């Protein structure tokens, strides 16, 4: 515990930690400014939205029947499919009424989460990467030669600091959004669902910080740790076309992609779409919707975290740090 306390003090005093925290809090405040017009629209904005909605509804009623008939006649699909291609305008689509709390709240949770994940990853990576670069890690081991204790104290410090950053960002966003919604007189719809998503988001932010720490420890460089997700993004772009069709060589891969499992963990389950060609030349296809469960994503992240931490601990235990 004393080692962890010392590591927390060192982590707190680092410039990158301070900058990351300030940036995250600034974005939290900016999000509240951006949603204010949606959460608490003025009477003039609501009247203008109502007029736009009514005009769109009249236009849809005048053209919908003809559009569907032309779609069917031209072979665009069945009657039901063509109906679905031209849905009726809704009040929500024109923001005639403010969006419900759960919708705007989950949007805030998502924004705060992705920003905090990036910040925590950067802080965790730079924390150990800087010690390798400056040689302070070797100096520290002369005072505390038990490597596993040093590794664990640093990992726990990064985990706690990342969780704190995520909790402040996520729940500050949720709380301030709730204040705006309640202040406008609207109910806090499904607030429990939003808070549960926030709790799961804090877990992911903590794991992101730990991930940055582990990758930088294995590579000995902060830049290498930052390059790892960029390299993944490049590879993901290149192989993306081999995952879209259910008969493609990598059609089995999407349930094991980190971005999809992150979404499934945050949203308590996620869906993705693949395609199956119905004609030999691929000019027509059907969509197939598949699901990744919350349990699957939880096991995915637990397994990844255990493997990463154990691997890093074994490497740190035996590798020369000078």
From TrEMBL:
<feature type="transmembrane region" description="Helical">
    <location>
        <begin position="112"/>
        <end position="134"/>
    </location>
</feature>
<dbReference type="GO" id="GO:0140359">
    <property type="term" value="F:ABC-type transporter activity"/>
</dbReference>
<keyword id="KW-0812">Transmembrane</keyword>
<feature type="transmembrane region" description="Helical">
    <location>
        <begin position="194"/>
        <end position="216"/>
    </location>
</feature>
<feature type="transmembrane region" description="Helical">
    <location>
        <begin position="299"/>
        <end position="316"/>
    </location>
</feature>
<keyword id="KW-1133">Transmembrane helix</keyword>
<dbReference type="GO" id="GO:0005886">
    <property type="term" value="C:plasma membrane"/>
</dbReference>
<protein>
    <submittedName>
        <fullName>ABC-2 type transport system permease protein</fullName>
    </submittedName>
</protein>
<keyword id="KW-0472">Membrane</keyword>
<dbReference type="Pfam" id="PF12679">
    <property type="entry name" value="ABC2_membrane_2"/>
</dbReference>
<feature type="transmembrane region" description="Helical">
    <location>
        <begin position="155"/>
        <end position="182"/>
    </location>
</feature>
<feature type="transmembrane region" description="Helical">
    <location>
        <begin position="16"/>
        <end position="35"/>
    </location>
</feature>
<feature type="transmembrane region" description="Helical">
    <location>
        <begin position="223"/>
        <end position="243"/>
    </location>
</feature>
């Amino acid at each position: 515990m004393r080692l962890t306390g010392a590591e927390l003090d060192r982590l707190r005093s680092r410039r990158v930690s301070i900058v990351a925290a300030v940036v995250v809090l600034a974005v939290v405040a900016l999000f509240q400014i951006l949603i204010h017009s949606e959460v608490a629209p003025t009477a003039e904005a609501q009247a203008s939205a109502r007029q736009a909605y009514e005009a769109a509804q009249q236009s849809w009623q005048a053209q919908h029947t003809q559009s569907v008939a032309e779609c069917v006649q031209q072979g665009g699909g069945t009657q039901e499919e063509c109906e679905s291609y031209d849905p009726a305008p809704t009040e929500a689509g024109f923001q005639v009424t403010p969006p419900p709390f759960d919708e705007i709240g989950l949007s805030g949770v998502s924004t705060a989460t992705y920003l905090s994940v990036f910040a925590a990853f950067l802080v965790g990576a730079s924390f150990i990467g800087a010690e390798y670069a400056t040689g302070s890690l070797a100096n520290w081991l002369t005072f505390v030669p038990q490597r596993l204790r040093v590794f664990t104290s640093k990992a726990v410090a990064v985990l706690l600091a990342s969780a704190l950053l995520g909790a402040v960002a996520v729940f500050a966003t949720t709380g301030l959004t709730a204040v705006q919604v309640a202040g406008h007189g609207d109910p806090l719809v499904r607030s429990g669902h939003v808070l549960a998503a926030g709790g799961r988001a804090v877990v992911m932010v903590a794991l992101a910080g730990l991930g940055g720490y582990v990758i930088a420890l294995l590579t000995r460089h902060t830049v290498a740790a930052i390059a790892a997700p960029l390299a993944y993004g490049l590879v993901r772009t290149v192989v993306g076309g081999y995952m879209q069709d259910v008969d493609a060589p990598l059609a089995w891969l999407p349930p094991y992609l980190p971005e999809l499992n992150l979404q499934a963990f945050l949203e308590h389950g996620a869906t993705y779409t693949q395609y199956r060609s119905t004609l030999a030349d691929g000019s027509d296809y059907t969509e197939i919707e598949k699901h990744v469960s919350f349990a699957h994503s939880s096991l995915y992240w637990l397994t990844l975290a255990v493997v990463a931490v154990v691997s890093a601990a074994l490497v740190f235990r035996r590798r020369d740090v000078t």
